[in-house]
Structure formats: structure tokens, C-alpha cells
Amino acid sequence: MIVTGFARDQWYVAAYGHEVGRRQLGRTILGEPILLYRTEDGRAVAMADRCVHRRFPLSEAPSHLVGDQVVCGYHGFTYGPDGVCVAVPAQRRVPRTARLRSYPVVEQDSFVWVWIGDRDPGDTTPPRAPWLAAPGYTTVCGMEPLNARYGLLVDNLLDLSHETYLHGGYIGTPEVAETPITTEVHEEAGVVYVSRHMDDAACPPFYAESTGIRGRITRWQDIEYHPPCLYLLHSRVAPVGSPPPAADGADRHAFHVEVVYAITPSTEGSTYDFWAVARDFALDDERVSDFLRESNRAVVLQDVAALNTLEKVLAGEGEHYQELSVNIDTGGLAARRILARMAGESAARPRSAAP
Amino acid sequence: MIVTGFARDQWYVAAYGHEVGRRQLGRTILGEPILLYRTEDGRAVAMADRCVHRRFPLSEAPSHLVGDQVVCGYHGFTYGPDGVCVAVPAQRRVPRTARLRSYPVVEQDSFVWVWIGDRDPGDTTPPRAPWLAAPGYTTVCGMEPLNARYGLLVDNLLDLSHETYLHGGYIGTPEVAETPITTEVHEEAGVVYVSRHMDDAACPPFYAESTGIRGRITRWQDIEYHPPCLYLLHSRVAPVGSPPPAADGADRHAFHVEVVYAITPSTEGSTYDFWAVARDFALDDERVSDFLRESNRAVVLQDVAALNTLEKVLAGEGEHYQELSVNIDTGGLAARRILARMAGESAARPRSAAP
Amino acid sequence: MIVTGFARDQWYVAAYGHEVGRRQLGRTILGEPILLYRTEDGRAVAMADRCVHRRFPLSEAPSHLVGDQVVCGYHGFTYGPDGVCVAVPAQRRVPRTARLRSYPVVEQDSFVWVWIGDRDPGDTTPPRAPWLAAPGYTTVCGMEPLNARYGLLVDNLLDLSHETYLHGGYIGTPEVAETPITTEVHEEAGVVYVSRHMDDAACPPFYAESTGIRGRITRWQDIEYHPPCLYLLHSRVAPVGSPPPAADGADRHAFHVEVVYAITPSTEGSTYDFWAVARDFALDDERVSDFLRESNRAVVLQDVAALNTLEKVLAGEGEHYQELSVNIDTGGLAARRILARMAGESAARPRSAAP
Question: What are the Rieske domain coordinates in residue numbering (chains A, B, C) (predicted)?
Fold first, then answer.
């Protein structure tokens, strides 16, 4: 059964850095409405997206920013970037309790991460996806809203055999579904690894067009899933017969693509599907960037259509529908187990009242 | 109160034969999602429309047929026409439990009937509507989806006095609502008969245009309802003063129209409204066919609009809204009683788990 | 917390008089579906909008009026203006219990008021808004459906500080939000008074355009709320320095606008927002009428947008969301208290079964 509870006390991607600016952005994460904006000196801040007075959303017009403060569009309650209310209409005194919950924020690897939970994040930090903002890589990215529980996207990404059927013509070839996987779980670190190495495979258009390879390829898919939010797919393609990576990691005969997904639960039945594709070749070729952006977006939209369909199916079937798992699901099942453990730990902790 | 439970262990019309072909057709019947298609040798088959793996609908793209097998569009699980899974990605062994529930199918009188239930149909067969595929008759037909519980359509069809008000200008005239009915119920066979014989009535456009009669008519409406699914209206019209049918049934002075409805519950609040009109005159006149098709479709759409409205009304009123029944409702009340008995018998039987 | 129960045994505005005519009008008030029409001699009548037979709405086509009677569009059940059924298809006898609940109606001040409740209204009468149909005033009016609980509109109208933020550019200026209010509650009569007198304020376009005043103004907002339905805003604007009203009430140096709202709960989450603007100047100036109609409608639609947003927010937050009230909310809180008392009294009375 798919996990439906949420893992709290965790970092989640709320937005790309470029989405957060001098206009308010509203995102709902783990069911919590969150307001994001950037102060005049460039700092991203996050706070509850509901005015304390009558709960009008601070992200919606006519609410607006004035300097570093946000002014509610209904009655003018005004808040600083720390969520503290600094002005109330028709009176001098601002009630002491007039403050919005404020969320810890870390900007890293092009993402704006927020900490959702009741505990302090302490010195924990979000996991890394350094390629997205590193020299030597060029990245295209986007976000598609998904009308499906996040567990369906976790399942989807942990088992790439679906590329053959759902994404034929883009990234799927018969070899993906035919080749067995190996799965490893680092229980302590809470990381799931799934690998599929194809020695001699057809080159799908996604790689043929972007790399220029015309023949068959050696294709490696090495997945690292850091529950709950970050998914990394290290993809290596090289013409069949190219030498393997050197002992020191050098691998100049191959093309490398780092496909990154951030899986952020919005509500019980909806999810933000952040996707990014970083490559170490054709760095300045806009045509390749355009092609990979359009191709990956098309692939993501195929997933979105399929998962939206599945969500409707499951929502109609109640809690106890039947599934049948096979070898390809080993990684997905491990991910579900870790997510269920995380969600269980959240549920067991007393939850502070939201201000 | 209208019956809302379903009568299981019964035959239901799932589709017209011409709707089932070499592309998958998905229909939800009594809440069960069913996949229909035709094998290469022309046999109609029906099975559960959910892949055993992750419940993706086998009727939806990119799921597709390959020969007599259906391939799931998500991960490629493949099933034979008996619902047995024959292929799974990345492994040789197919789990023994990987099989879809398969439904008994009978093709008869242009309909594809499926048996919904847990018991075996044994040697029961669906009731007949032979005119729809018989020499000496020409038939037009269609299906309109109804966003209303099936009981509202049963009520509607068992009491034709509504023709005067809802279908004036097509098939209603004042005499229909004015003329009392006679009702008979064959409890053992579970059939409801409702008759209304009008000796001297205006001829509505439906019959005037199709038969060419210009004056007043003798108009007989003889209903046979075979719960739960099949409704037959034997309609006889003849110019006033024409001789009645002979003792041997011969009736060459009258025009006969066999109006057939199949009432198939889809979900609790939706129904497939199959309708067909078979006539024994103007057999090769396309203009008459077109006219009757358009007229009957218009009439059905008037019913659909009224019943969709009623469904919204009733859904908003909870379980205990009040009704007031009068003489014209005798047939409808008998039908409700039989359907309630059938539904009660279904509920009393232990239900096998859906595979 | 906002009141969500309904105050029954009260008068509510169902429609403007000009909306009720020789075609049926259906309105749902306090969850009760009501049919309104005018008899041939011009009397407005109100009765349950559900045929006693199968509950088809009498306000919806093909239901129709014949003389003073309404004929159900499904089977032709026919009712007089008192709700008593006078004809049934295919039989002479009309069942004694075939009668629709009939609602007391009062037409007054351009409104059609109906009494919703189980007790008799006795000699109670709806509260007055005489300017809407009095010589010496010109009125523009409209009604906007609101997809929000009525309490949100009560809150909105009792605290006009929101004009500054939500209606800037129409009727809001900084002084509205800055100026404290005075609130009085006549507990016995059940009336809430909220006043805000601005001695020296900017003149918003709503008044500048309609009165021709170019400089700053003295602006008085005197609210009278007669729960549950009638809200009066006595608005007085005059150039700064104009003399105050005379002891006898004469006030010829000022412009007076009587803004009237009728707040009629439709369902738990929807409301009819009737609005009217009566003025004692430029009585025959169509340009001023057009301007005030368009301006006030724009203002109401800004409220509708904000309150529809709030309804979605609150509907998603369950029963126990938090609010923080300040001085400007004194009137609104008093209104909520009176409405809660009224709703509690309704709930405590035994409710007669709806016919």
C-alpha cells in the first residue's frame, strides 16, 4: 500500500530560487500554506500564508509587498520578514500574539528548501544536488503540478522500467524494461540505490539528439533517492565499446546527465514535481538545451497524465486496493518502507499548534 | 424511496457489439471497471480494467492490444483474453496470482451482455430483444451517459405519462397523461407489465413523420420490464378505425415500433442509457431512419437533462426525502420492489474478493 | 469563530420585486428551495420548489405557469398559488396531502421578503429600507451570488476598514482604516450600530465623480445592522468646513447616500449578496446612476472575490481555525453574537417536517 502520511521534520524544496522574488509566491507544502518572497537585500523568507486576523492569504492580491514587509490585502495587517505583525488598522497597539509561523529556509543548488516540522532543524542541512548550479554543467529545469499523492511519483521514479512503455519515443527502449536492476538500501543514512546497467542498448532520441551518438550505447542508470524529497538519477551513456570510467573517476569517453527530481507533497492528493536535467556536454549549445528542456518536460507530462489517472483510480478504490509487486519494485518498496517509518515518527511526536 | 443498491449476479448490457472491437473499451458497471475488446477471431472478451501491478487502467493509452493480448501502458504487464498475465518486465517468472477477473460474455440481439456477480451464471441467459437484429425490422440506436442513479431511469420508463410534459412535440400528446394504465407483475418471473391503450389519440410527430399517418390514431403502449436491465416497449399505432390484430397475431393494418432500453448502472450516481428503436415499416427508407434516430435521441436527451437535475436534487436531500405516489406509479413501484429484492439477495450473499 | 448555523423564523430578502414576474424564479434560502412567481393580478407568491410527486423543480423548464398555476414539467402535477395541488395525471382524485409548503411574503422597499421558519410570523414585519422606493431618492441596485458562508459577508460589511485595502481606487482612502470606530449594540432590539466619522479625508472616486466635490471631505459612515438580513450604511459626505446637520435633521450642505445590503444565506457555503445605492442628489442624472451602478458593482465583485477565496481557505481548515480580533472587529463580533443567539433559538425549537 502506498504511503499517504507525511514525513515532517524534514527539508522540502518549496521553489526554485528564480521563482522567489519581489512578488509573493504561495505554495502549500505538507498541507501548510506558505508564503515565500525575497527581501530587498535578496534573502528568501518563508512564513504562514494566512493573515492572523481573518486568514486572508498573504500571497493573493490585493495583498502586496512594501519594502521587506507584506501587507494583507483585506484589512492591511502588516508583517515583517520574520512573520511578526508590525501594524494593525485603526489602532497603535499590535497584539503580542500577532505573528505568523516562520519557516527555516536554505537556498542551495538552485532550490529554496524549507523545513517543515515542529522540531528545530538544528544543524541538519538539505541533501545536495550540486550539478544544478556548478561550473562544468548546463541545466534545464521546470516544475509540473501533479494531482496525485506523492507516493505515486516516488513509485514512478524508483522503477524506470516504465520508460519503455510510458516514454517510448523519448527515453524508453526495450532494453530498459528487459534489464534487471540491483537495489541497495542504506538503512542508517536512509538512502535507496537502484541501478540498471545496459551494456548494449538502443539509443533513445533523448540521448541521440543531444549527444550526437548514432549507434548503440552502453547506458547506465544509477539512482540515489534521499527520502523524502530528493531523487538523483546519474545517467551515463557512451557508444558501445567505449572504455569504462578510470579508477580515478575520469570518464571522458562518456556523456553524463544528472537528472534531479524534488518530490514535494502539497496536499494528500497533490504534489509539486520539480525536475532538472544537468549535462556535462554541449554546455553552450542552446539547441541542445531547448531540446532537452522540451523532451524532459514532455516525459514529465506523460508521468503527470498517468499518475493523475492512477490517483483518480485509487481515490475511488478506498484504502484496501490490491497490488502485486515484482522484482522491479524492490527499490520502490524500500522507499515506501523508509517513508512510512519517517511518517510514523512524525505522527508519534506531539505537534505544536500552528500559530 | 428509490433503490440505490445494485442487483448482482445478473446479466447487464455493457456495450453494443459494434462498440467492441480491436481497440480497448472501458466501461464501469455496478462500480466495477471492465475492459472490453474483441480478439482477432472476433470474440468479445471482458476482464477487470486494472493492471494487477499498480492498477493502471488497461483501457487507457498508452495501454494497447498486441494480437489477442492487452499490454499495460505503464510497465508492460501483458494479459491474455482470459485475463491471465503472460509477461512481466525484467523477469521470466510470472507470479501465479497475476490474473485479472474475467467476466462471462454473451453477444445477443446486437448487445454485449456481461455477467456481474460472484456466482456462476450457470445456464442462465440474458433476456431477449430479438427485433434489434432480426429480418423484417430496421433499427436505430445509441447510448447516452446519465449522471443519475439508475432507479430514476427505471421510474421514468415505467411511467410514460411524462411523455406529455417532458416530450411534447416529439412523442407526447395529451392522451398519454390522461389515459389510465393497467399494471401486471409476474412475481415469479420477475417481470413488470404496464399497458396504456388509447383508442383515439392525436398522432405525435414521432409517428406522423415516420408512418405518414395524417389523422388520429389508435395507440398502444405495452411495456415489459425485465429487471434489472432490459426494458421493452411494444408500440402499436394505427389509423383510428383500423381492424385490431387478428387472432393469430397478424396485424398488417398497424405500424409496430419496438423501443428497447438497456438500463445499466455504472456507479451509484451514473447510468448507461442504451436505447434502440426497431420498426417493421419503411425498412429501407434512410430518411425515416435518420428521423427516428434524431427524434429518439432528442427524447432521450430530454430525459437525461431531467434526470440529471433530479439526481442533483436528491443527492442534496439525503436519504429521507418525501415522495407522493399515485396510480401512474404502480408499475414503477413494482419495479422498485423487485429491484430491492434482487439487491437485498445480492447483499446477503458473501462476496468474493475481487482479484 | 464565524456563525454557520441559520437563524430561522426570520424574514429574508428572496428577490427584488422586479425579478419576480410571470416566469418562475427559483431561489434556495437557508437551504430551502423556493419557487417565486407573480399571479396574474400581480401578487408575489412563494412555495416549495419541489413537486410532491418525484421532487422535480417547479422553477425549471419544462415546468411552466398556466394562469395562476404552476405545472410540473415532468408529469404535469399542477399547483395553485397557495401550493395546493389541483391536478394529477390520469386520475380525478387529487390526494389530500398533495400540497407544497407555502411561504409568507411581504413586498416592501423594492424587496420581496419571505418568512423562513416553522412558527407563524404573526404581526412581525421585515425591517425597512425606505429610500429604495421613496421620492427624493434615486436608486441603483443588483445582486451578486457569493460562494461563501453568509457570516463572511456580515464580517465584511460590519468592518469597513477593508475599504482602504480591498476597494482602493473606488471607495477606500487611508483615512477609513486609520479612523477608529464607535460601536453600540441594542441588545433588546437586536441592532448593531457602528460609526466612523472622518473630519478631514480624501474624497474617493465613488463620491468625487458622483457629487462633483473636488477637495477634501467630511465623511461619515453610520452603519445599522438588523440581523440577520438587513444592513444599512448611512453615508454622508460634505466638503470640509460645511455646516453640520441642523437640529431638526436638515442637512442641505451634504450629500447623502444610503447603501443597503440584504444578506440572504442560500446554503451553508453560499449567499445572495443584494446591494442597493440610493442617493439624494443628481436624481435624474443617468450618467451618475450608471457610474454608481458600475462602481458599486465593481466593489461588490471585489468583496465576492475576496470572500470566495476566504471560503475556500476556511472550508479547508475545518472547524477550529484561529482568528485574532482587534478593535475594528467590535461590530462584527457583536453581530456574530446576535446571529449565534438567533441560530441557537432556532435550533432549540422543534422543527416541523417539510411537506
Answer: 11-114
